[in-house]
Amino acid sequence: MVLASGRDDAVSFKKAVNVCRAIKGLKLEQAKEFLKKVIDEKAPVQFTKYRSGVAHRRSLGGPGGAAGRYPRKSSMAVLKVLENAENNASMKNFQTSSLLVVHAAAQKARVVPRSYPRAFGRMSTKRKILTHIEVGLKEVRE
């Protein structure tokens, strides 16, 4: 098994969770193709968690479809970690054609608070939310 992680990525935690759920269980090439389609907004990611207020997409099945979006920034971050895992696998002499995504997860990282000035001498706080992304690949013999 091979692991790779992206630490403190400035992407939405909730969207990253749904992207990781979508690629888990796919072969490496299928996962990379899927993420590239999401980045090009050709295929939506089904939102199974954190889906309140998310519109439905017809391409996710049925006349109404399931809730889904096109999280480009999160998909780019997960694709980068997936390619790092592929490089780690090639360094360990695994066959990259037979790799399966067995672990894909996103965890909350630290929150960076920043202040910015408002009217009448007040200050408000912006919070930059960071996310950790982990991907695990396993060689599967058929």
Range of strand content: 35-45%
How many strands in all? 6
Rg over CA atoms: 18 Å
What is the molecular shape? flat
| Share in helix | 25-40%
Indicate the low-confidence ranges by residue numbers. none
- Please state the average pLDDT score: 94
Number of domains: 1
Query: Main sheet?
Result: 3 strands, antiparallel
How do the strands and helices of this protein lay out in sequence?
Blueprint: E1 2-9, H1 13-23, H2 28-39, E2 45-46, E3 56-57, E4 66-69, H3 72-91, E5 99-117, E6 123-139
Antiparallel strand pairs: 1-6, 2-4, 3-4, 5-6
Structure description:
The chain is an alpha+beta fold and 142 residues long. The chain has a three-stranded antiparallel beta sheet. It has a three-stranded antiparallel beta sheet with strand order 2-4-3. The chain contains three helices and six strands, in the order βααβββαββ. The protein has one domain (2-139): Ribosomal Protein L22, Chain A. The protein is flat, with a radius of gyration of 18 Å. 30% of the residues lie in helices and 37% in strands. The model has no long low-confidence stretch (mean pLDDT 94).
